[in-house]
Amino acid sequence: MPIYQAPARDLRFVINEMIDLENYNNLPGFEAVSSDLVDTVVNEAGKFCAEVLFPLNEVGDREGCTRHDDGSVTTPTGFKEAFQQYREAGWGTLSSPEEFGGQGLPHVLGFVVEELMGSSNQAFAMYPGLTTGATAAILAKGSEEQKATYAPKMISGQWTGTMNLTEPHCGTDLGLIRTKAEPQADGSFAITGTKIFISSGEHDMAENIIHLVLAKTPGAPDSSKGISLFIVPKFILNEDGTPGERNTLSCGSIEEKMGIHGNSTCVMNYDGAKGWMVGEENKGLAAMFIMMNAARLGVGIQGLAQAEVAYQNAVAYAKDRRQGRALTGPVSPDEKADSIFVHPDVRRMMMDGKAFTEAQRALYLYGGLLVDLEHAAQTEEERQEADDLLGLLTPVLKGYGTDKGYDVATNMQQVFGGHGYIEEWGVSQYVRDVRIAMIYEGTNGIQAMDLCGRKLAANGGRAIQLFFAKVDETIAEAKQDETLAPIAEKIEKANGELKAATMWFMQNAMANPDHLGAGAHHYMHIMGIVAHGWMWLRMAKTAQDKLAEGTTDTAFYEAKITTARYFADRFTPDAGSLRRRIETGADSMMELSVEAFERAA
Amino acid sequence: MPIYQAPARDLRFVINEMIDLENYNNLPGFEAVSSDLVDTVVNEAGKFCAEVLFPLNEVGDREGCTRHDDGSVTTPTGFKEAFQQYREAGWGTLSSPEEFGGQGLPHVLGFVVEELMGSSNQAFAMYPGLTTGATAAILAKGSEEQKATYAPKMISGQWTGTMNLTEPHCGTDLGLIRTKAEPQADGSFAITGTKIFISSGEHDMAENIIHLVLAKTPGAPDSSKGISLFIVPKFILNEDGTPGERNTLSCGSIEEKMGIHGNSTCVMNYDGAKGWMVGEENKGLAAMFIMMNAARLGVGIQGLAQAEVAYQNAVAYAKDRRQGRALTGPVSPDEKADSIFVHPDVRRMMMDGKAFTEAQRALYLYGGLLVDLEHAAQTEEERQEADDLLGLLTPVLKGYGTDKGYDVATNMQQVFGGHGYIEEWGVSQYVRDVRIAMIYEGTNGIQAMDLCGRKLAANGGRAIQLFFAKVDETIAEAKQDETLAPIAEKIEKANGELKAATMWFMQNAMANPDHLGAGAHHYMHIMGIVAHGWMWLRMAKTAQDKLAEGTTDTAFYEAKITTARYFADRFTPDAGSLRRRIETGADSMMELSVEAFERAA
After folding, report:
1. B414:A517 CB<8 A
2. CA dist B480 → A595, B565, B566 (Å)
3. Is 0.80 surpassed by the pTM of this model?
4. Interface contact flag, A444 B10, Cβ < 8 Å
5. How far apart are CA A346 and CA A354, in angstroms?
6. CA dihedral in degrees (A516, A518, A520, A526; nearest 10)?
7. Do residues A263 and A250 make contact, with C-beta atoms less than 8 angstroms apart?
8. Per-residue pLDDT averaged across A400-424, rounded?
9. CB neighbours of B576 closer than 8 A, spacing ≥ 6?
10. Does residue A202 carry a catalytic annotation?
11. A292: pLDDT confidence band, cut at 50, 70 and 90?
């Protein structure tokens, strides 16, 4: 039987001890924050996720969603009731603005709920997850009337939202979209076209679904500069704001996918559906990026979330499973075999899982803090710094976080041996579910180009210089401590590789931009290693301080320091080989003709 | 629609040009070998696989196998008929001994068929694949009567075979098995116990199934030294050798798996079933290793096979799919977007796929040659060398080959973007199917320990020294050529890392064997890089020679040299970081208590 419990101690460690969230309570929205509040959110959300959502995870995988002939969709058994509970508990309202019915708490807390929901049931979590993204776009770009009409009910979970970007012939390159928006006499638009891969596109969990749809108005430029964003509700609202007439849009089919079967991934047909423009004409892409950036952080959390639940199950399995003997002699001589935990190769995978999940958790929570600081920090300089760092770290959290999340989930499956390949142990589902995270909200190749082609060079490299300064500061501090110094030196070396790779791009990408493209993915991984290494140094320092103060939780803090050392030993060396790969440039990569890739008879 | 065609030109290149199989025709079994024969086998087997087996691949995935209440199993639509065609064409007989109805041709040719079948339908290929392993054990350890009774019908495909090792509580550690074998008055044994994960355990494709079962006789030592091997046929043979009475064994259930749904993975219940011992009592493990070694090579081929079909589909998709523009300016200005082949990150994944599949193909074909040379080479020294190299390369072909095969299949899926996650494009199945290859026939962690704990040290390191000598020789030769020299230097550097890692093990593993265990997986990967690099040098040299001779196939040979350069640029740097990881030893990996891995509330 698959298991899951909230990693509550770890969350509290990062939020209350490493980040020390209480320390920010002079900021707006943070006044109510205390370590007690953090504990309550972690415990209660953890309980809800472990007890209500996790038992439905396998149900969702097995049953999937069912589309009926009339285009209606039934979600898996229990999803509707669980969403009702989610709504009543107000888990979707934590970090939403108070003005629209939210609780106005820091994003760190909203992100915690995203992790817990992602681990317990990713397919379920996507229904409210997409809603959060759609709401963010309306709040950022919608009119006052649109905000007042839609946001409160989306925040409360009474209605859900979707993002409609992709069309059959067009994914990343949104300039190619064909969906049309014809202006109507009443100020609305008639939306016509087909959208695919629409997560949560149709379902039975809420009384209305607010689709945010990218479309082109007549005569719009034939490029990404000609896209506008529209609100297209499933039920057109009555004057009093209640759902009324059924709009002319429908789910044409549900995609058969590798995983996340519990989420209804729909082909959506818009047939002159009534829609209202959000923000300015032809500025839809910018509005979409509001959603997208929030969504990318969320997907980075998913990479961790699936790795986490896979890790917890692998730990339980490895502890119980007895095969063979330790290389150094029997550990359990009274048993016929030792637990497989004694085998170094099992340990390697478990330590990789532990080192990744804990660092990615620290990094997303730090990212959550930046989301708030970006708006709420006291000085313009602090807000700017938060914005720069968040922009830089978003593609890393998403791209590195999901690449490694998939690797870790795969390795956790490996710990189970043959049992990992059998669906009843649950871990196959985690691998299948997390696979999508490398693809959606911009493939990881797109994340790499966002990082290297956009974020690195912006404002004369201000963000990356700030990142280096922050990391260097942490390294310098850690080098003062004799336990942490050897760890810090290895992180410093990795950071040196990142600096060298940055320099190489500066010197070579102007002459041939393919040199940048050819190294972008590797660069993103070096930066992931350094960002995680930075978090490990900060966690190790926090643990070291707690041990120095005196604590009864010695084993927990010592494990943090050991894991930091493991990370330094086993994760940082790749920074060097990735840098060497970058420095070979694009020549051998781009030289062949397309025909040379095809197999000859 | 998924596509597949045999990579015929590549196979011919390796067999006829790089290995130059005709050159060995003074060896027994090779007399009939000519490049024409190779072409015929490649073309005809390729045709059968592409036209008959590949169209059933998706059918098998979707339908799976069905167990009926009486324990009988129906395979997916078309499988039975395809197996009849396979049998009639004699594809299973190619490399089997003529004495038992085989064609006695070199294993290289049998391996080619394994690749083509694996690419076109891995779940189907496992039915004859397991039969080959079971037959090998009977031929190696069975009595003359057993060989004569079973081998011809298994080789012809009239009957199939299985391998019954795993039990619910026991996988890798076969010393723990509980299945019992009670001697009977007639010389047979009554076999009782439950076996799990039995591939092709029950089906409707052949008139009999010959189960090879590991079990313990009364009073046998309570360890892996107390295991014996038994032939347990589904239908006990009549005096005339035809299948007669139904044996008391049955399929209890079919496992629900992540992939290879077309293969019936059975829980097999033996209830006093009649069996006959193969070879000596308590020597079953050695007999099982006969099967296992052949099977491991086969699984290494599977890693390639799935990567190959995924690669072919990704090439076709990337060629057709248009999104965005090249970083260096529009390549197809008349179209609204360029083919995604122009994007360096797509190229990176495609070149990785090309570099891996072609090197793994060369390596398994070289392995096939070694299987023959091991028995048929003219001098004892040559036979010994072939045996040493094959033993060393088997875990690398399996472990590195399937780890990378999974990576490549995953990246080929990534090329499809969101479409890769949808089952209709086929590539999700390749990822799900290839996943098992990292697990079965000994997990890749077991392969790494076989390599480092057994093969490296055997005979005073004779095999690895031979490997180094062979690789060094190829490097030295390539360095004479100005085009190949820069490639050779990078392979030489990787080989230097392998030598350093070997030395580090020698100096440290005696003091603490966990140092070996902690580095084994990384060592296997360095050796994979070096072995593939060696193959790339040999392929590049062959191509260079052909170009020097003058050829009309210039583009093909030039692509080989470019791909060799890409491999040297992008694959070899990891050898350095893996070596550095090994040299950090086991300390931080093994330090934590098991409890430290569990999440605290």
Report:
1. no
2. 31, 16, 20
3. yes
4. no
5. 12
6. -120
7. no
8. 97
9. A573, A576, A577, A580, B493, B494, B497
10. no
11. confident
